Amino acid sequence: MVIGINAAACQQSRATEPEIVGTDTALPSPKPSVNVSLKGAARDAWSWTASVQVEVSETDACEGLVVYVDGREFPAQPDGDTYTAEVNLSEGENRVHAVCLPSAGEAIESEPVVITERLRQTPKAMIQIEIENGQIVLDGSKSQTAEDGKAISEYLWSARDAHPEPLQLEDGALTGEVSGQTITIQPPAADGEYFVSLQVQDQEGRQDTSTSYFVVEQGQPRVPDYDNENPAWTEQAIVYGVIPFLFGSPAFDATTERLDDLADLGINTLWLGPINQHPADDYGYAVEDYFALDPAYGTEEDFRELVEAAHARDMRVIMDFVPNHTANTHPYFRDAQQNGQDSPYWDFYDRDEQGNYTHYFEWDHLPNLNYDNPEVRQMMVEAFSYWVREFDVDGFRVDVVWGVAERRA
Which class for 200: exposed (0-12), middle (13-18), buried (19 or more C-beta within 10 A)? Predict the structure, then answer.
């Protein structure tokens, strides 16, 4: 879809109409018009930069061409029959338009297009745990600023309550929040896992929180192999698989009402079947929105209350998540099918040599995502993070993870 306007390359005002002498006198020819348009329509972005292509109907009409993003200028370079500009995006909606600067006459503007930046403009809390001289050092210095570079102004450390024994700073117990980019704690004597959180805040007041843990074994602290070592609770999980719509309606409330019954059975982990937005006639693996819940199951607040109620009973909550594919009713796939290679989402999907989308088995309604595309990878990282950050879920059962691994091998 192309959005654009027509404007005269060189507008000239005429004080009077030309005199017509006889029927054989021709009127002056109209000035040629120039069309300036941005390729593509409104879209989402999952990176902080975007390539914007501009079409100009007469390639020699513009001595210069500039792309504006909410007033910020980005020069565009000629690229065959089009111009291309690499632009920086801000969180949320970005209003983008192009301006052609002709050799004479007024500038010619395109109609605007909105690019919605889906990534968050926040700092990123990063925890590094080290054992030094028998002490446990919690280091937040690797935390990253937001994309706009605003400095981190505050580091706040905290510890979970449910530990084998309380954590101790050099000068007292680690209770509440403790300030400092780096802090040192005494090694606990009791064996087990110890979880610590770091909240960072930048000059704009934007915050991010991260959690990590260390282990004490036989009285000695160590840093786990996070990539290959499972947290202890996963090894001790007694899992109950919840198919939400079978528990009643609305499903989240109905599940919350049954938590005491599940606790009496010795259940300490709930595995929720797919709960993301999906077609009404699908079990849930055909995802239409990774950041939305199936409205038939309840509201976000209902789900948040379910997770909080489970945690109050020492139950963990894991979600069934589907990074391999989307539904063929996902807005991105529909756009790609409708607009072909002009779609910004064409490359979001894995394709064969003929350009056809791929899928497994008879799942032609489940097009595979293309993990060679960095925007797809960033989108999925953000999707997983969203449910941890906003709802405090404890983990995921990842559906068709073998498919992602197979295509990325």
Answer: buried
